[in-house]
Amino acid sequence: xxxxxxxxxxxxxxxxxxxxxxxxxxxxxxxxxxxxxxxxxxxxxxxxxxxxxxxxxxxxxxxxxxxxxxxxxxxxxxxxxxxxxxxxxxxxxxxxxxxxxxxxxxxxxxxxxxxxxxxxxxxxxxxxxxxxxxxxxxxxxxxxxxxxxxx
Length: 151
What we know:
The chain is built from 7 helices and no strands. With about 150 residues, the protein is an all-alpha fold. The chain has a domain at about 35-115.
C-alpha cells in the first residue's frame, strides 16, 4: 500500500465536507490546490512530453496573468538580485520567465515518476559531486537538498 497516497486520500476526505470559503485547513483554497496538484500529477505521468510541457506553459501563462500578489513578490525578489526596479523591462521579463520555468519544474517533477531509469540518467547530470563525497568521507558534511525546507 502506498502510504503517501493513503495520507493524501485521508486528508482529502477530511476536507471534502467543508464549505467553500470556510477558511482553516479544510478550506476551499486547500481543496483547489489539492486537485490542481493531483491533476498536474496525472497529466505529467500520462501526457507525451511535448504536450505536457506546452500545457504547463499555457497554465502558468494564465496563472501569471491572474496571480497579482505572487507576481509582485517574485518581481520584488528578482529586482533585488538583478539590481533593477521591479517594474523595469528586465525584471518584468525575468518574472514571466520565472513563472514559465516553475510550470516546467512541476511538469518534469511529475513526469519523472514514470520516466524509465535510463532516460533519467540521460537527462540528469551532476557537477562537483566529488566535493560532497569528500565532505561525507571526512565526516564534515552530509548531502542534502534543503530548498524545500524554507531556509
